[in-house]
UniProtKB/TrEMBL annotation:
Protein source organism: Streptomyces avermitilis (strain ATCC 31267 / DSM 46492 / JCM 5070 / NBRC 14893 / NCIMB 12804 / NRRL 8165 / MA-4680)
GO molecular function: oxidoreductase activity
Pfam family membership, one: FMN_red
Domain NADPH-dependent FMN reductase-like: 5-112
Keyword Electron transport appears in the UniProt entry: no
Protein name: NADPH-dependent FMN reductase-like domain-containing protein
Annotated InterPro entries: Flavoprotein-like_sf, FMN_Rdtase-like_dom, ISF_SsuE-like
Record keyword Flavoprotein present: yes
Domain of life (superkingdom): Bacteria
Gene3D superfamilies tied to this protein: 3.40.50.360
PANTHER family in UniProt: NAD(P)H-DEPENDENT FMN-CONTAINING OXIDOREDUCTASE YWQN-RELATED (PTHR43278)
Length: 194
């Protein structure tokens, strides 16, 4: 299957640091790798309503959700590019991930089996100088990948507060150059780690 990257942008502003860092990493992808970029702020997803245990499941009726679902299952690589908000993913990003719980039950889709073996990556920018405060975000993405049997490529982390600040984080921009070159490993929950 040819590589196809879906970049899911979770910032609440356009042209933010997280997108900038994600684009710096994406620049290094080979030309034959397809890229799709979706800004969640521009695709207002409905709030998640928990209908997992209702009987009638189907494809989402909402156009924006259907677009996100189709883009997600078409991707070999899903890149969650979310700024660090309160030490975790942004609300736009969390809402997108919550809808995955519905997609797990869409008849005929087999979302879990479809996503198994595919790659999940994270890109984030935070204002704090201490990268470890982003551990909850990294844990969310790692565990999400583990739950779905996906591979996890880790999180590309940058520093910045105002838009464009991450350009000054030369170490992050250097890491971006090789970030997608790594081979993601099958994700494991912390309690499964060897
Ligand atoms: C709602 C909100 C919550 C934030 N929470 C954190 C945080 O927990 N830790 C941190 O270091 N920075 C935090 N920040 C700062 C952003 O992570 C930082 O400004 C980042 O550059 C924003 O990325 P963006 O330009 O891609 O939107 C927060 C910003 C906002 C708006």
């Amino acid at each position: 299957m040819p590589r196809r990257f879906l970049f899911v942008l979770g910032s609440s502003r356009s042209n933010g640091n997280t997108e900038l860092l994600a684009r710096a990493a994406a620049e290094q992808l080979p030309g034959d790798v397809e890229q799709q970029w979706i800004s969640l702020a521009g695709h207002r997803l409905p709030d998640f309503g928990d209908q997992r245990h209702d009987t009638d499941h189907g494809r989402p009726a909402d156009d924006e959700l259907a677009l996100l679902l189709d883009a997600t299952v078409a991707a070999t690589d899903v890149v969650i590019a979310s700024p660090l908000y309160w030490y975790s993913v942004s609300s736009h990003t969390k809402r997108y991930l919550d809808h995955w719980s519905d997609w797990l039950r869409v008849p005929g889709l087999d979302f879990k089996k479809t996503m198994a073996g595919r790659n999940l990556w994270g890109v984030t920018v935070l204002a704090a100088d201490e990268p470890s405060v982003a551990d909850p975000l990294a844990g969310t993405l790692n565990n999400t990948a583990a739950y779905l049997g996906m591979r996890f490529g880790g999180v590309l982390l940058g520093n910045g507060s105002a838009p464009g600040d991450v350009r000054k984080d030369t170490e992050a921009l250097t890491r971006a150059k090789t970030f997608f070159a790594r081979e993601p490993e099958l994700a494991r929950f912390p309690h499964q780690a060897v």
